[in-house]
Amino acid sequence: EIHIKEPIEKEVNPHLLPGELLLCEANMVYKYIQEDGSNRGTYGKLICTNFKISFLDEDSASDDNEPQFKNKIIGENDITLQCVDQIYGVYDEKKKLLTGQLRKYPEKLIIYCKDLRVFHFCLRYTKEEEVKRIVSGIVHHSQTPKLLKRLFLFSYASAAPNNTDGRNQTVMFDTLEDWRDELERTKGNVKYKVVVTNEGYRVSEKLPLYFVVPLCVSEENILKFQGRGIPIWCWSCHNGAALLKMSTFPKEQDDNTSQMQKAFLDGIFRTISNPPYELLKREDLSSSLPSLQDIQTAYTRFKQLFLIDNSTDFWATDVKWFSLLESTNWLEIIRRFLKKAIEVAECLERQHSNVLLIEESATDLCCVISSLVQLMMDSYSRTKSGFQSLIQKEWVTGGHSFLDRCNHLHKNDKEEAPVFLLLLNCVWQLVQQYPPAFEFTETYLTVLSDSLYVPIFSTFFFNSQHQKDTNMTGESLKTQSGPFRFLTVWDWSVQFEPKAQALLSNPLYAEKPKPDKSQRKTTRFKHQRQLSLPLTQTKSSPKRGFFREETDHLIKNILGKRIGKFIINSSDEPHNSFREFYDSWHSKPVDYHGLLLPSIDGPEIKVWAQRYLRWIPEAQLPGGGTIATAAKILDLMEEVQSLQVKMDEEHSQAVSRDVQAVPMLRNSARLSSLFPFALLQRQSVKPALPTSTWKDLEDEDDLVKRDDEFVDLSGDIS
């Protein structure tokens, strides 16, 4: 049965941003709703601009039933050109990857997105000329190499009025004062200094204009070695120990140069290891952590688990979920980075040693580890403004090559690696293990990961501060010429209304430490799905969630594999002092404003469900998950705020403007467990898979067979 909405009668005009130009369009395009493998869908217009690909139907013209968590820049049927991962054409029911010039045009178009959405468009009823224009236009503008100045970032900056305050208490670390304030905040100004040697980028184009080095490092040596081999300060611990990073010297050097560099390094290391400095421990991250290629390979495999074409494909992969998840190696990579960060924290906290992170460029793995260490040890980094300032310091001004690592220009696939996304996955592990310690939510992290592909913000679209500064000048599309005024991603009002922004803040954030009342065994939300690899074989309830009890032989087969590598006491068992430090911390009550160490044993490292499963209806629990609890909490907060307003009105007519909007969830009786990105879309249906596995499971009263339950989160059960 094919369910078809009639073609739209009224013209639907696209919503274009300043500087956005319509490049090509096609009418009578049929968009499939690929929820259950049927051919249900709707007719509309498919357009391509210099910013996005967009599908317009009659629903696009109405504001009815708008989602509560609506992005003002990117609509439900919008895909930014940078968000397109791969495009496939369907020819006689066969999929073919589309790149470059096309000789034959497909009857169906499948677009896989980097935020894991999948769009299916049928072009059978579209005029042939329009099919050629739209398909070749989409492939050309989203897949072929482009110049930096061709990014929509520049078109938008030259055309949009810049009347927003982009700082929002976020320290941008682009001035001398920002670095001096950070040194003072961390009490690092006794042993370290801010240098201005790189003003005009005369030392290195990769280094920021201002950075911090030990007092013993002379500006002469910084210039002499072009910033390489120089310990650069990241952060100072409360006990005086500091976290430093250093890029290595080029490998191919003549003997004289190598000896000179070695003598310089030995002198630096000896100085930093003596008073007033602490002992120095060197960590060569390139040899102790997975390479960028390993990270890219693992993530490429991992994301395929979630780029699902239809319901049948999803249920087919569910049977072998554990083995597929393990084979990607993605969770193991997350575990290894968290483990390394704990090792560094142990050196700083217990051994009172300086730690020097060493990497070839010091702009990839160094960024991940230094950020994680600061999140674990500095409670300021766990506030929203503190976390944003941390990203600015370690990643944006720190010289992480966002343009290359995200492959925004499609110039070199070999440089692509999801390093920043790896950090967000690691941070999510901490957030879900210790929710009260963080001022921001997992929704905030998910939105931040999506913002990687929105080219109206400069934050994630340059390789260095130098590249941004040298591309700041340009002529406007219309009148004046002058410096571009780029937006920063930290101004969330550009993307979300206040009520939607409220979902980015954690209502249960513990603003003041209460160690006497803290309990080590905090109540954690039970995971409704098996999103981590098992540690030991246990008897599960037949209703344990979507990833239900597989057949016994499958479980035994998985557990028979070398699961040991996901456990901390495996072949790469850390030294005794680390194990003692790790176990000792986990045996004590948690101070949410003190040191935080993540649990990294096998099952504790989980899949970030909200980000990776949010577009898959089969993975949603109606009225379930943490949203049911959150709804009650937000209702209570709203009641408290209304009482507070009444009390304020008794004393003054002016209502405090600092009261943050609370999202209204009370009337949303059938929210999905993956709210706010996916509301409940439909009931689950039984997969059409004639396999023996499903026959074995036919008697189970699980999610596949039973109807969705109606859950009233407001408490008014009728």
Automatic annotation (TrEMBL):
Keywords from the named record: Cytoplasm, Sarcoplasmic reticulum
One GO cellular component term noted in the UniProt record for this chain: sarcoplasmic reticulum
Compartment list: Cytoplasm, Myofibril, Sarcomere; Sarcoplasmic reticulum
GO biological process: phosphatidylinositol dephosphorylation
Source species, domain of life: Eukaryota
Domain Myotubularin phosphatase as annotated: residue spans: 173-612
Entry-linked Pfam families: 3-PAP, Myotub-related
Region annotation Disordered: where it falls in the sequence: 507-526
Family, per entry: Belongs to the protein-tyrosine phosphatase family. Non-receptor class myotubularin subfamily.
Name of this protein: Myotubularin-related protein 12
Native species: Nothocercus julius
Lineage per the UniProt record: Eukaryota, Metazoa, Chordata, Craniata, Vertebrata
Name of the coding gene: Mtmr12
